Task: structure prediction
Amino acid sequence: MDIEALRHGNFAALGTAVEDWTGVIQRLTEMEKRARDDLRAKANRANWAGVNASVSREFINRTAGEFADAVKQATSIRNILRDTRGELVGYRDELNRAIDRDWDKHLSVVGAKGGGFTVYVNVHPEPDGSKEAMTLLRDELQGILAKATESDSTAGQVLKALANHAEYGFSGGPSYEDRDAAADAMKAADDMAKIVKKDPEGRTAADLARLNARLEKYGQDPLFSERFALAAGPKDTLQFWAEVTDRYAGVKGSKLEELQDLQKNLSLTLASATYSDSVPMREWKHDLINEGNTNFRADPANPLKGAVGAIGFQVMSSLMSQGKYDSEFLDEYGKKLLRSDMAPAGSAGMNTNDVWTSPDQPADMVFGKGNGRDPMTGFMDALSHNAEAATNTFDDKSVLEHVLQSTRYTDRGESVGHALEAAVTSVSFGEVPTEPAPHSKAQVEIMRNVMHAVAQPGSGADLVDKAMGASFGHMAAAYMPEISRSLAGQGAESIFLTNSADGDGLSSPTDVRRFLYEVARDDNGRAAIHMGESIYTSSLLEAHISTPSLFGGPTSQAIEAVSHNAGLIEGIVGHSVADAGISADLAAQKSENEAVKAQGDFFKSVMAAGVGVGSVALAPQNLSGAMVGAAGGGFFGGIVGMAVDRLMGGREMDGALDNALYVTGQGLDKDLSSARVQTETSVEDAIKRHDSDLPVDGTKDIVRKSMNAGWADSDTNLEDSSARPSS
Result:
């Protein structure tokens, strides 16, 4: 920094900028609150259809999110400016105090051309000790200027990085309390990139420990992650991980845990970096994808290591199981990866495993979680954490068919299931939704295509066996409104409430029945269907009992239709179990109870958020304010929690020894009785909760008769649509 600029600076303009940004933050905060609580909330509750449902709602949600990002970025800018101004004022005062103090020692300071300065003695002859005093003052002033320069230059770098992080709009991520916090993150990124680029022979376990610690601390910091990725470079990053996985293959104990932790933190850091839209990061992403087919040998200088290393896709995908990668990056990455995965000739999915299997390749790319050779596993995990990208990927029917069928020949089934869940529900795997996520038309079409694949005679059942049963069950639960409409047929729209953009998009009742029938063979899939049906049925019953005007006819008629539908779905599930000969012996009972417990916990965690996975009926916009408030975040759900508790508690109370006596017909009788009691109790709960004039006994009788009829119809419908064992 120029000494004269610091010495005479008043920084008034910088102070004004801080005040202006403070005002901006206040206004943006007010706008963000309005966008979140008013604009986005109304958009999510609106019963839109067609283009509005898929385009307008998404645009409004994105716009509301931009306000939140704007608040964070404005706060960071204000804090950095405020901190930098404070530091520079402090350095200015420190500089002037030093100069004034040594004036008494007859020393003067003048600026020199180029920003330097000269210290000289301003009396003659020079007093004793003047040279030493000149040296001390010079060093002191240089130290102050160095600190001021560091403050000024790093502030400039950080502000520029924040501005360039997003080409349009604002960058999200944490807000910085001061300049030091942001500057420290960027310096740490440069230091850690040096470890990545270090010669592997000189890279120590201590280096990896330092890298892991910094990635854990700063990995979600957008400035750190971008700076780290750019400084390390895409090719060197992939080479680094190929070297680490080869060098430490087979480690156990605490060392294994440390390396798994490093893999997680590196994955999270790179995921964060992909959200930067700066020109250098766009080039980084492009270059990384182009390395997909590059052979990364662990030690290129050692011929004994062999000529075949890990392929770029394998290395990168092994770093994609954690974190949420940017949608556009995943779209482009997936297109190139899928071209390779879909290359072998033959029917969809065949020979896929041969693309990525070679005896000469590294044995373990993911430290014990499989072997990491199939890059589609990591990519599917990445999609499961980014619902938007998952929907975009599976919107291509040929890709969906290939990926589904490929699970027959690979071990990627569980990851594929999680990705499909995200694709059709808008809820990332492992996350609890914070707001309603209505199904788009594209999502309904993906669900329809999945159902069709699973419903195929002779081959669809195999897909359920590939570790995807629980995911298919979650998907069925999320699509209970659409499933119910498909089974009920046209004309039931005002009974089976939904905010789906294509509520009647599951057009084939045959596919719906066969899908439920096959998924019910899996314990977790069956438990999830039970939960979804119970949640949707209880919420519908509450909706129609609390607000009779929802249906333009007698409320009893709506209750009859809902109950018949519940009997039909539960009947399909019950007959699936009976046809498969799934006995309720001790082992089977234990497995089913564990599945019910796991799925019950899952759905209760969702309901605790006040929203749902799409299986709870939405309150229409024409309800009174009191009813909308009672709906809880737009959803009817007052008696849902009690319904799930009953289902979980009832299963736990079943005696395994007694239940072992129930097979085939007797088992079906018990299943019907259980489903009927659940629905009758939900009706009774709703009548009491809302002080309804409906007679309890008479309404429960309607439920009983309707569920019996639905259950009987399920047997007939299955005979028409499924090849079943003879009785």
